[in-house]
């Protein structure tokens, strides 16, 4: 909202303070600065506040605001006096203001760094987390304006407000003075305040998703009067799934005598329903969506699934229509899935929601699935159904203008019905947040991601997101760092998801291979080696092997302490009469299940070729398909709307087995301790097992197992996280570096930034204990000789021209020059071969101890944030893309993994008899660079090249640094929803 011209003469309206937020109950609200145009809203708001709340705010009865009060509370300079309001539907529900004060408590201006703060929340909205959210935002505003502390006076009886301050996580002091509690809060963020903020964010965003997935009532807006069409299809699917809540149809064009559609109450508008509606599925043309959204907002709908197309996927006009849709919905406190969405499914028996275009609700299970593409969603649902897998929830978000994969990671993190999260993503709206949420979720359950649009160089239509400059290989490395299982295709995602949902995690990479085909066993063995696993020689049971032979061999392999996982290979076997055994697949599946149930908890996968019924039989006992539970008790008496009936046609499900062969879901084994796994067999008893995943090709089974092995290793390491070292010695001068950066950038820095000179870069890096070996210019041969004399022989002579820099292969470097004559001769050769000295810019540098040439870089990507990179120097590494990456700040473990994760890492550790280099010194250098860019966001690029790592120590021979005004860090500020 723009202020009137009468607004503050001191400072322009701070539009960047405006923010949409999710409250504790999952509803949304808008926070914005209060302007002079808000007088009527303020008065109306105050009239709806109880006398008790007014008393707590003003410490005395204060029934109404005077004209002077209204003027004071709506006129701010946005520096020393600031007011923020929380609005829903355009009306105030809460306010906060601060006034800068001096040491005596009187009004003041900068440099005074303390302010008095006061809140007022409408009683109807107390308990929704409004005040705690406002505190985050007003604290961020205050820090921006140079205020470091808040002071607040609170009556002792105002326990709610005292709790808001106490639970915020800021460093604070409390005292009791003159009948009130005096609180002082230090506004510098702390680890505790950041943890509190993120915990609140998780609860609020998870709750906002839950409100969409578990509604008590659903209205389909746009359900056609005649069969067919999107709205009517969704209504039919909703009823066919057996939705446990109330269903309504809404169509503004209904005939006057039509009051039902498909047997549910039909209305011309939501207002006619007369009962609360939790979720609205909008399936009307785009030009009619604003009217439908307004109708929903005015009647208390909590969330929307917008199936309508015609938004950002249609170009600039549609993109603006999409932004307006989000603004309109959020103004009413609603969140949106879509637009251009395929829909949502929740398989919980308490809900049974299919508000999608999928004609059949998939089997209930333990996999959560999110996709940004309707077509990919259809393919994934079909693939999972064919393989007998079950889902807990399914979301196809379309343009995901509001709710995204990040929100569902928040929800799945604590969802007891989801064991594995699968996501198909075409873009990342907030990559830093995604990485943070994925790391936290992956610590408790697997997260498998397929990233589409990897190489297109553009954002998919309909997705308005920050453009990343980093290559896809870097994105993949950063996902791996966060514990995300990154696969290339949706088929691989299903393969990995089934194994992770159904089988315990392996304790290592030792794989036993057994089966009745020597050739198939060898193919599996080769595939294991290619994926970095440690297979044992395949055990050939011969083509005469019976199901009992398979059972015995699998039991033996599982009992072997030198085995972490088993792959069973099977081809059809022939009976004594020369014909294939009938029912062979079912018999073999029963044998394999029996062996798995009797042994230790280790993952088992099956590779089969044309064995009829085997995959289906193996899917009969499955942990991805939930057990049948008694239906929840239904409230007695007729409901205002019709409760959706159980579908008249049966929904296909996994093959049914007897109670003896359909065990409960399996809890994944504790990492590295499969013997103590829940569900492990005790003496004389069988272990409950899940579905054994079956694959038609050895490579697919091995790839899925390889991902499980790598994920299990990451889980073990994540259990004891690395640390960001503090370097307690005196080599880190953070204040000195900040002063140098401020001096270089100046008071009015160029937004494009600027590179530092070699001397400036050397001085800045020295503040963090990074020593760059000096160079001396050599504009002519005599200067080169003089420089060599100053530095001491032997020396190196090299060019620094941009087209020759770091290109020893082009002949621009001469090493080990031990005499004056050698220097003169090398200088003459360079200038004769490559050009004039003015073009070459030669320099002289003292020789470093022999070692391995490496490169250390750090860059700031606008989407992903600060990225630390490492590789060997030289053209081969560049051509092969052999560079490793980690997010900043890097931990000691990250640094160690960084240098070991490149393909050429053996060169650092004594390859072919060479001496191992000092990797400890290299890890320390990586950590120092990480600290520099993390402490100073103005450092947007650092390149140390080459870094020569010797057997003892290392030498930085070249360095370049670029400074720029710091980019916005939305991940560290107060909670806010992304604006797409």
Describe what you observe in this structure.
By secondary structure, this protein is of the alpha/beta class. 32% of the residues lie in helices and 21% in strands. An eight-stranded mixed β-sheet has the order 1-2-3-4-5-6-8-7, sandwiched between helices. The longest helix is centred in the N-terminal third of the chain and has 23 residues, at 191-213.
In order across it, which strands form the biggest sheet?
A: 1-2-3-4-5-6-8-7
What percent of residues are in strands? 15-25%
Structural class: alpha/beta
Low-pLDDT parts are 1-9, 621-685
What is the molecular shape? flat
- Main sheet makeup: 8 strands, mixed
Radius of gyration: 33 Å
Q: Mean of the pLDDT scores?
A: 86
How far is the first residue's CA from the last residue's CA? 18 Å
Number of helices: 27
What is the share of helical residues? Answer: 25-40%
Total beta strand runs: 40
Helix/strand layout:
Blueprint: E1 19-22, E2 28-33, H1 39-47, H2 51-58, H3 67-74, E3 81-88, E4 91-101, E5 114-121, H4 130-144, E6 149-154, H5 159-166, E7 171-177, E8 180-186, H6 191-213, E9 217-221, H7 230-240, E10 246-250, E11 260-261, E12 264-267, E13 279-282, H8 289-298, E14 303-306, H9 316-331, E15 335-337, E16 343-346, E17 353-356, E18 364-371, H10 374-386, E19 391-396, H11 405-414, E20 420-425, H12 431-442, E21 447-451, H13 472-481, E22 485-487, H14 490-502, E23 510-515, H15 518-530, E24 534-535, E25 539-540, H16 547-559, E26 565-570, H17 584-598, E27 604-608, H18 614-618, E28 642-643, E29 694-695, H19 698-718, H20 734-745, E30 754-755, H21 758-766, E31 775-777, H22 781-791, E32 795-799, E33 813-817, H23 820-834, H24 837-840, E34 842-846, E35 852-861, E36 865-872, H25 875-880, E37 883-887, H26 892-900, H27 919-935, E38 939-949, E39 954-956, E40 959-963
Parallel strand pairs: 5-6, 9-10, 9-13, 10-12, 13-14, 14-15, 18-19, 18-20, 20-21, 21-22, 23-24, 23-25, 23-26, 26-27, 27-29
Antiparallel strand pairs: 1-2, 2-3, 3-4, 4-5, 6-8, 7-8, 10-28, 11-12, 16-17, 16-19, 30-40, 31-34, 32-33, 32-34, 35-36, 35-38, 36-37, 38-39, 38-40
Helix pairs in contact: 6-11, 8-9, 11-12, 14-19, 15-19, 16-17, 22-23, 26-27
